[in-house]
Design brief:
single chain; binds flavin-adenine dinucleotide; 9 helices; FAD/NAD(P)-binding domain; 8-stranded mixed sheet; alpha/beta
Length: about 400
């Protein structure tokens, strides 16, 4: 269903969550697309990142007929099994607050599993996915005939002519840089601290434990039956070298206020500054930016994958509308629609990040902010018995 003479309707740059979801959404509606992914299939299917998908993300996948890609990963109504520890004391999340209106559950689905499943379904259904696409460059975006050029695995230069380009190549991709200087603005918030994030071959039991402690925030979150990711708040200046394995485990135990049931091999460590970034507008000419190419959100909110799916959903609906109704109104409002949602999510991510971190170690934001954050945190928790003040 391409415009005459073009290779495809949508050239999708980047085969991550946003790009693969978009490819599947379009393919399901019979709309031509080509996904160009820089890395090999083996690489992207092993790349460990996020692990939690909220109910909105699961609902979007279901609506496009892709429930199978998160099958078996629903975390059900298990808030009780995801305790918050405040100075070592177990607290329960308040129930009934932000349940999905359609009663859809979120999922603990490691990102590489979701990527693997999206690739499998896309290829099974006849999708055109080209791995190892190097030196991707975008051209003629302000015309009706945009073009994407790349070098294939054999070293040959190829072009894909299309009606639209979806820039879904992540924060460090090339799509956003194809927009002429001065067109995009970026708004950034630095939280002033980092996370040491650690992958370990140890299951999380329960699936997610979060801890607010005067030594700093800590968490252990499942990444499948035999792995979990540990998080420790640390100063921005910390390096991985300052965190030998023994220190990671002992600090986790100190912040949890109890021994962790199982310790094991640590497979990777990284210090990640916590920040939020939004680029605006999210489109330029025939280029539409999706997911991390357009925004980064504090990982505390676990919204990175969900935002990517949101953008893919809005863009796919807009393309379908353009093709079936010959009406560009949804494409025209794509940026506005996605930015509205992005800022809504950024607002709750900032609120949540500050509540979880400022309530702990006062050396970052001071005692006043600590007390405010404790009160904010209490609004999300089941109250303590009447005669017990919060910690
Ligand atoms: C270490 C880490 C931990 C994270 N933890 C969490 C978490 O716990 N919860 C959460 O919700 N989010 C988390 N995130 C964020 C989440 O992973 C992202 O928000 C999500 O991956 C966004 O999806 P995306 O498709 O927009 O981008 P990506 O997943 O980054 O996909 C972009 C794709 O484009 C490809 N690409 C890049 N450049 C090019 C190019 N020039 N040409 C062609 N292809 C290209 C990349 O190889 C990649 O496959 C984490 C991120 C990182 C890095």
């Amino acid at each position: 269903m391409t415009t005459t003479g073009k290779d495809t309707t949508v050239a999708i740059v980047g085969g991550g969550i946003a790009g693969l979801a978009l490819g599947n959404f379009l393919l399901g509606k019979g709309i031509g697309c080509v996904v160009l992914e820089k890395h090999s299939r083996e690489y992207v299917e092993q790349r460990q990142r996020a692990g939690a998908l909220d109910a909105g993300g699961v609902r979007r996948l279901r609506e496009w007929g892709l429930a199978e890609v998160v099958e078996g990963h629903s975390h059900g109504d298990s808030d009780a099994a995801m305790p918050l520890l405040i100075e070592g004391e177990k607290r329960q999340w308040r129930t009934g607050g932000d349940d999905d209106p359609d009663d859809v559950d979120g999922a603990y689905c490691p990102q590489q599993i979701l990527v693997r499943n999206l690739i499998k379904v896309f290829l099974r259904d006849g999708g055109d996915l080209r791995f190892g696409a190097e030196d991707v460059s975008l051209h003629d975006l302000s015309t009706e005939n945009p073009l994407v050029r790349y070098r294939d695995t054999a070293g040959s230069t190829k072009t894909v002519s299309c009606d639209f380009v979806a820039g879904s190549d992540g924060f460090h991709g090339v799509s956003r840089t194809a927009v002429p200087a001065g067109v995009l603005t970026s708004a950034t918030h630095e939280f002033g601290y980092a996370w040491l994030t650690v992958m370990t071959d140890v299951p999380a039991d329960p699936l997610a434990v979060l801890a607010v402690h005067s030594r700093g925030f800590a968490a252990q979150i499942t990444r499948g039956p035999n792995a979990s990711r540990l998080y420790l708040q640390c100063p921005l200046t910390d390096t991985v070298g300052q965190w030998p394995d023994d220190r990671v485990w002992s600090e986790l135990e100190a912040r949890f206020g109890s021994p962790v049931p199982q310790k094991g091999p640590i497979t990777s460590k990284q210090v990640v500054p916590l920040r939020g970034v939004t680029f605006s507008p999210m489109s330029h000419g025939r280029l539409y930016l999706l997911g991390d190419a357009a925004h980064l959100i504090s990982p505390v909110s676990a919204q990175g994958m969900s935002l990517a799916l949101h953008d893919a959903d809005v863009f796919a609906r807009a393309v379908v509308h353009q093709i079936s109704e010959l009406d560009s109104s949804l494409l025209d409002s794509y940026s506005e629609t996605c930015l509205d949602h992005t800022w809504q999510q950024q607002a709750s991510a900032v609120w949540m990040t500050e509540a979880m971190h400022d309530a702990g170690d006062p050396s970052y934001e001071g005692e006043f902010r600590r007390q405010i954050a404790r009160k904010n945190l209490e609004t999300m928790l089941e109250p303590l018995p009447a005669n017990r003040p919060s910690a």
